[in-house]
Amino acid sequence: MIHPERPLRRVCFLALPLFSAVAHAGYQFEDGDLKGELTLLGGAAVIDSHNANFGLGRVDLRTGEVGKQNNSWQEYYVKPGLTLEYKVNPDFSVLAGGSFVASSTQGDGDPGGYTRAGDGSSAIEEAFTGFRAGDWKLTAGRQNYTVGNGFIVMDGNLDSFGEGDYWSGPRTAFRDSAILGWQHEGISAQAFSLRTDDHLGDVRMSGANLDYTVPGTATLGAMAFKVKSLDDDLNQVVARDGMQVYNLRALNVKVPGATALTLNGEYAIERGSGKGVTYDADAWYLGGDYSFDSLPMQPVFGYRYASFSGDSDLSDNKQKSWDPLSKGFTEWGTWLIGDVVGNYLLYNSNEDVHTWRLKGHVTDTVTAGALYYQFSLNEKIISDRQ
């Protein structure tokens, strides 16, 4: 088990998205010293699932009520947004932005029991303000923040229970957050303090991130932060308070003499201790993508091996299972590893995964692809706590 709100049970089912669509539109404008962008994101999905909870049936996480083995549900959302920048002088600008999400889940609800028919809400998603001064930028409030490709830090909201749309996941902003950034030529750095929603445990992650981009070669990065539990009741299943996370990465690495090949890799550890628990977990991955630009549809073939540590002895006070914290989703095959396993089983912990993927451009705006996963447990001795 990874997320504290997720119960100590396994859910297995076959999910078939019968229909899924996402639409995005943006409009940029400028009037004197004021410029901005209006955005509109919307999504809809119709999904059918079978064999929930290994045939036991869907279990509502709020009531414990056991439902059907086979479930069908629908999700809809719309997300308008606005960002503004007003230039006070050539070296100083005032910033502001926000977005709004209206969502709805209908039908049986998702088979993991995170949502049910009638769940959904209409609420502010992002609401931040700040300033830009030369190479410096400061923003505070409810806002999005991604480190690298979202391996550890990207999504601050689990989209469950009354919010609805657990499968679509339109909410990603961190609340009560502050980000101080500095960027000059190929170097960018941020000091950050981010708070997750209650369904992700209500924790604060505070630390720093550094990226260095070598043009045409790679982006090298390093991150360190500490986790503080703001509500111990929400972190009873998996402890987090006092955890220290360290991360090294090399992204978009171009291989000399093989320009069609792009490599990516990261290594991260969780250390430290807090409230009687010592942390000793690690995760890493290495993968590559090869582009066949001269072929029809310009196909890209990729392979990645990812490993997330498990814990073979749950009787001691050392937590060795990797905690993914606020991992993100950019497209299928990133850090939601498998629709079923990623959403309802292992959550990027105690697993080793081979991923093969193939995608191509049908048109300039439509991409088709296929994914194949091979999963195995990192530690073979497990219990309900994992």
Describe the structure.
The longest helix is centred in the C-terminal third of the chain and has 7 residues, at 339-345. The protein has 386 residues and is mostly beta strands. The chain has an 18-stranded mixed β-sheet that branches. Residues 1-11 and 382-386 have low confidence and may be disordered. The chain has one helix at residues 339-345; strands spanning 14-31, 34-50, 71-89, 92-107, 122-133, 136-143, 174-184, 187-195, 203-214, 218-229, 243-255, 258-274, 277-279, 281-291, 300-308, 318-319, 351-361, 367-376.
Please name the defining characteristics of this protein.
globular, mainly beta, 386 residues, disordered N terminus, single chain
User: How many β-strand stretches?
Assistant: 18
Total DSSP helices: 1
For the sheet with most strands, the description reads: 18 strands, mixed
Run of helices and strands: EEEEEEEEEEEEEEEEHEE
Query: Which structural class should the secondary elements be placed in?
Result: mainly beta
Q: Which spans have pLDDT < 50 for at least 5 consecutive residues? A: 1-11, 382-386
CA-CA gap between termini: 4 Å
Provide the gyration radius in Å.
Answer: 21 Å
Can you give the mean pLDDT? 91
* Portion in helices: under 10%
Strand percentage, roughly? over 45%
Shape: globular
Helices and strands in order:
Layout: E1 14-31, E2 34-50, E3 71-89, E4 92-107, E5 122-133, E6 136-143, E7 174-184, E8 187-195, E9 203-214, E10 218-229, E11 243-255, E12 258-274, E13 277-279, E14 281-291, E15 300-308, E16 318-319, H1 339-345, E17 351-361, E18 367-376
Parallel strand pairs: 13-16
Antiparallel strand pairs: 1-2, 2-3, 3-4, 4-5, 5-6, 6-7, 7-8, 8-9, 9-10, 10-11, 11-12, 12-13, 12-14, 14-15, 15-17, 17-18
